[in-house]
Every structure is written in structure tokens, then in C-alpha cells.
Amino acid sequence: MTTHPKIIRARRNRYLVLVMLVLIVGTLAYAGYWWHYCRFWVVSHNAFVTGNLIPVEADATGIVTQVLVEESQYVNKGDLLVRLDEHRAQTALGQSRGELGQVVREIGAVFSTHQQMCQKLIARSARLARVRHDVIRLRQAAPNGSVSDQVVQNAEDQMMALEAEMREAEAELKSIEAKVGGTSRTLHPDVEAAKYKFIAAYLEYSRQQIHAPVSGYVSMRKVQVGNRIQPGDPLMTIVPLEHLWVEANLRETEMVRVRPGQPAEITVDLYGESHLYHGTVEGLVPGTGSVFALLPPDNAAGNFIHIVERVPVRIALQKEEILKNPIRPGLSTLTSIDVRESEQPLGASLAAVSSQEYETDIFIDELADAEATAQKIIMDNLIQKNAPVESNCK
Asked: Is the pLDDT of residue 38 over 80?
């Protein structure tokens, strides 16, 4: 039994109407969803997790004798990471110690010479004063014939000789005062130079042991036992995982309403949609990614091609969520930014350097210890009282 064509057309029309209704309802639903939700969000797949990668570099010359950490190992700030051969640095430290003591003693001898010259000048001044008195008396007695002219002449010659010796002693004293005048045995420039030479050797010796500047996980370990390293050679990297953020590279056409302070939702490919991270836009990098590249574009060239650039946007993550579900720098994310409201201007920045990896105090005591040691060496080699040189001798 065949179906009448009119029935077939009527059934087909009903199906078409039903399909059209479904399409219209779906379109209206999506339009409503976009109007009330999607149009307020900027979504980017070009976003990844990043953080501070703290380099550990050598600050001394030496051969590596021990490596105490391995990749993926957690270290605390101040932990010993690498030890170098200390023999050469220890030898140089001992040599500078001896040189400092020698300079202190030599300067002490110069100060003693200054005192000696002062006493010599005082003695010659007394002798000259006595001879002058004798000359005055002889000159008064000569007209009466009490003394001969030869005696007066001899006294005057002796007075002139003593005056010449006085001028010589004064010149020698000024020469000594030019070396030690206005300073003291411990603050003499030669002592200061030898002191800081010792401090430099002390720091070189102390830097033979390389400590962790911050707490974090060891990665990219390059150092091996037997390597001869120089200052500036990279040894490893420490990554603190409790302070991370997302760098979302948004197209410039999406940046119109993006402002610091806006909330963001992030899903990491490591966990998928099962874990949602909440973030806050901290700031917009002042330039597109291309201008910071190794070879930035030259728009004045004739082969310029207009393309849509991307601007990096920094999005802070919550520390509690990171600790609950750990992530790593470099992981890919799907980042959505709610651009409905923000009281912050476009040029504002909410980024701060408040976390522990922005400061280290592992070197804070080295200089004080070196100066205390140098001061002890100075005092051990200081024999006479430390007094400044007077401008003249009385």
C-alpha cells in the first residue's frame, strides 16, 4: 500500500518546521548565552604557567669537589648545594692575612719614626735656644773685652749650624707627616687597602661553598664533580612552586576591555576541567611579544606584513589553590578573563615583589665576619697606642 503524496509532503513539512524550530531555539539560546555571559569573557588558549626561575651561579674560581643536590629535590634557603676545592682560596687568604699584618707593623714603624723625629726636633730646638742665649751674652760681653771676637764668632757659627739642622729636621718631619698626618695606625690608607684586600680574599674563600639563595626545587642541574668553574658559570636553577602566575598572550583585538584587577578562571591541561584555578589580572606587559624577541620586527622595511599581534597579560594565581593542586611552569592552560568591571586604569599594575624569592640574605653576614676578622688581625699586630698624628711637635 503506497502513501499518498500529500501525506508525504505534510509529514516532510512537519519535520522541516520541527528542525527550524530546533534551530531557532538553539540560536536564540546561544544568543542569550552569549549576550548574558560569553561577551563578558575573553578566552585564550595561548596561555601558560610561569614563575620565577632562580639561577644559581658560581661566584668564585675552583674545581667542584662535591655536589649535594639533584634535580627535583627540594632545598631550603641557605642549604649547601656545591662545594669547591678550597686549597687555593685558603692559600690566598693566608697570604693576604700576612700582608695585612705586615702593613700594620710597617705603618706602626712610620708612626714611631714620626715620634722620633718629633723628639729630635724638640732636642735640637732646646740646643738652639741655649746657643742663642750664649750668643746674646757673648755679644754683650765682647765690647768690654771679657771675651774674644773668636769666641763670639764660634758661638755664632754653632748657632747657624744648629739652625740648619733645625730646618733639616723640620723638613724630615714634614715628610713623615705627609705619610701619616691626619690619620691613625688603624685607619691609615695603606692599612685600609690591605684590609680590603684581605676581605676580598675572605669572600673568595667563603664563596667556595655555594648555598641556595631561596627555597625551592632544583632543576637544570649542570654542575658535575671535577668541573672547573668561573664566576658567572650557571650551575643549576631553583624553582619556587608556591608562587606562580599565568602569562596569557591575548590578541590585540581582544585587549580593549582587559584591565588589571579583573577576575580570571584557569584550567590547566595537566588536570583538565576537573580543577579550576581562580586568578586576578595583575597587569599588561608594555609591549607585544614580538618587540621583545631576539630579532624584533622592522616595520620600515618593504616586506612588512600586517598581522594581529599578541600582548602578554600577567594573571596572578591563588597560593592556596597552587599548594592544593601543584602545577609547574610551562604547563598549558585555558584562560578566561571576566572583563565586565574593573576600577583600575589600563596602565595600572597590581604585581608586587612580596614573596620570598625576591630577596635573599645568605650573604648578609659575610662582610661583617670578614671585617671583624680583619680588625682582629690589625689589633694583634698593633703594638703601640692608636693615636692620631698631631699637626706639629711641641
From this structure: no
